[in-house]
Amino acid sequence: MCISTESSACSSTSASPNLPTSPSSQVATFRKCTLCPRIAYTTNYNLLTCDACKMFFRRIVILNKSYTCKYENRCRASGKSLVIACKACRFRQCTDAGMMFRPNFSEVQTPEPSELEAFVRNVVWLDARRGKNMKFKFTDEDFSLSDVLENRPMKLVTRVCATTGWLLKEGKLL
Amino acid sequence: MCISTESSACSSTSASPNLPTSPSSQVATFRKCTLCPRIAYTTNYNLLTCDACKMFFRRIVILNKSYTCKYENRCRASGKSLVIACKACRFRQCTDAGMMFRPNFSEVQTPEPSELEAFVRNVVWLDARRGKNMKFKFTDEDFSLSDVLENRPMKLVTRVCATTGWLLKEGKLL
DNA sequence: CCTTAGAACATGTTCTGAT
DNA sequence: TATCAGAACATGTTCTAAG
Ligand SMILES: [Zn+2]
Ligand SMILES: [Zn+2]
Ligand SMILES: [Zn+2]
Ligand SMILES: [Zn+2]
Questions:
Q1: A119 beta carbon < 7 A from strand C?
Q2: CB atoms within 10 A of CB A131
Q3: pLDDT digits (tens, 9 = 90+) for B50-72
Q4: Is the N or the C terminus of chain B less surrounded, counting Cβ atoms within 10 Å?
């Protein structure tokens, strides 16, 4: 087998599912993800992991989500699944293994669900008002959404890509 | 085994990866997807398929995409992958098996890449103009984006959900 | 009730840019 | 050049609602 938890060099061409293949041609070197059977190309958030595990961990942190295990907090990858189905246990596996990620804007505390809803409503309302006012009256009032969008929490969908200036979809909601 | 291409009743609880499990408790009935090893619960686009194959097919049609096989148009599902990695061959497998889907708005011909770009630029420009004008002058001019968004091709990202009125993400780009 | 198209949500893979 | 966070893209799963 070509998998190694250590730094021993292994080879692979480019099997789409990032699973190890038989060493046919010497191309890229890799090791095994600390958390699942997939290939790990680099260290992610302080732990050698595959990209799937990286993104799973990242999204939960960014979106500031939390899950509760329905069982005994001992869920395992079952059947043909490569990872733990229970999000709570899968995430705990990440942190237990040493993954860590503290976004800059982490001081932004968790908005309550009601706050999030309020935020969305605010945007919708502001946009609606802008639409009305710009048709019927002249005003200097600032109708831009910057006030609301300013220091918005990462969990919201409406983030603007720093490079492209386009809206991102990671934050859901769209 | 509990898989059957016919209508014989099988059972499953709720294994996350839609793969058949051993018949433990009699709950739901299912058959095998015509195109892959997954479970098929219903007919989709005229063929008994799983939801993954359904969405794969749907998206290509909706987005009006086309792919070309880099090999001999004989690609197969390899290794641990459940489906054909080559999109061209996987899609052809769908149509060959009888899947069919002709959206209402199909008369909307394929916009050239340049047209697509132009569309995006139009929206951006219109939005920018609206932002400026509503600050400095009074006008009856319609600054809504409806003109542009009107009969827009499905392949564009900016579709509005008929029910929620929110932007959808299926169309990519956003 | 069924069936199933489509939306919504979740996850996985690849690309890009900064360092 | 190598690393890796983050964006962008692609795919898979679940939910909703119309008929
Ligand atoms: Zn992993
Ligand atoms: Zn658990
Ligand atoms: Zn299938
Ligand atoms: Zn092919």
A1: no
A2: 14
A3: 999 999 999 998 888 889 999 99
A4: N
